[in-house]
Amino acid sequence: MLCEQGQWVKAVNHPKFKEGDMLSGWGGVQQFTLTDGKGFHKINTELADPKVHMSTLGMSGMTAYFGILEVGKIKLGDTVVVSGAAGAVGSVVGQIAKIKGCRVVGIVGGEEKCHYLKEDLGFDEVIDYKSGNLRKNLKKACPEGIDVYFDNVGGYTLDTVLTRINMQARIVICGAISQYNEKVIQGPTNYLSLLVNRATMEGMVFDYAKRYPEAVIQLVQWMNEGKLKSREDVYVGIEHFYETFCRLFSGGKIGKLILNIK
Ligand SMILES: NC(=O)c1ccc[n+]([C@@H]2O[C@H](COP(=O)([O-])OP(=O)(O)OC[C@H]3O[C@@H](n4cnc5c(N)ncnc54)[C@H](OP(=O)(O)O)[C@@H]3O)[C@@H](O)[C@H]2O)c1
Fold first, then answer.
1. For residues 167 and 197, what is the distance between their CA atoms, to the nearest angstrom?
2. Per-residue pLDDT tens for 86-136?
3. To test the ligand 1 pocket, which listed residue (60, 127, 152, 258) has its Cβ within 8 A of the most ligand atoms?
């Protein structure tokens, strides 16, 4: 089967797909993919624009949905803190927690992202970790402690959040972007807070893949009802791969970072 990235299936010799299908899957940064179809699935472009299938209806949204609902086990009235909150996963996590009646606090870098979370997505509080004292700001934003922390960044932020958790708190370990480029990973030094508070810390990676279709139905419904917004930051041109990739670490983007390699 031959696919052109960002385009329709061009030529096909496959029982599951036909020419003209739009697929999503794991390809390289390349214009054409010759594949046996493994790791690819057909997307329904009537449900949403293809770029939304790469973000809120793709891996990012699935991770957010099952991470906050199944691992975070949020309940009405919980105080939920999410880091990387203006990113592809974090922004969906925060919005789902709002839909479920939680008080949501986002940790993010920079004023523009703070404004976006509060004004566009309806977060209750935002903390700019790049300015001010994170520990003090967290105390101010979460006067009654933290019930659920969805961690996208690890490192100092995770360690600081641990000092504010409540009894039976749930910490969802989704990612640790502050540590990916470090030679020595900084583990949490405040982990005894888990002991004192009978709290749990749990990781997740693709564990709910069989249930993705049910999440897609729910997420589409929320988007159609205007309760959930999907935002993508799209750059064009394979020649911009390097600078676009670096935006993940500099934070120079909002929502799902996409490179259209045409
Ligand atoms: N477990 C899974 O199955 C799974 C699936 C998908 C993604 N993930 C992980 O989930 C996390 C979020 O993914 P995503 O796709 O939504 O990424 P993203 O939030 O779209 O992009 C990364 C964001 O992280 C923030 N960041 C970068 N360096 C940082 C640092 N040193 N300290 C604090 N924040 C930093 C930046 O935002 P600011 O401007 O706010 O700093 C940046 O925009 C990543 O760690 C990713 O690896 C896990």
1. 4
2. 999 999 999 999 999 999 999 999 999 999 999 999 999 999 999 999 999
3. 152
Residue 31: what pLDDT? 83
Ligand 1 atom nearest the C-alpha of 174 is 1
Same structural domain, 173 and 108: yes
**Number of domain units in the chain:** 2
If asked whether residues 33 and 64 sit together in one domain, one would say no
Site of tokens 């404004």: 115
The verdict on 113 and 182 lying in the same domain is yes
Mean pLDDT of all residues belonging to the chain: 94
Same domain, 74 and 184: yes
Segment among 8-12, 32-36, 250-254 with least mean pLDDT: 8-12
The protein residue with its alpha carbon nearest to ligand 1, atom 20, reads 87
Calculate mean pLDDT across residues 161-175.
Answer: 98
Q: In which domain, by residue range, is 12 found?
A: 1-42
With vertex at residue 241, the alpha carbon angle to CA 84 and CA 57, rounded to the nearest 5 degrees, is 50
| Pocket residues: Cβ below 6 A from ligand 1 | 59-60, 63, 84, 86-90, 108-110, 113, 152-153, 174-178, 204-206, 248-249, 251, 253, 257
Looking at residue 255, the DSSP 8-state letter turns out to be B
Query: Is 2 within the bounds of a domain?
Result: yes
Find the helix or strand (DSSP H, E) in which 33 lies. strand 32-34
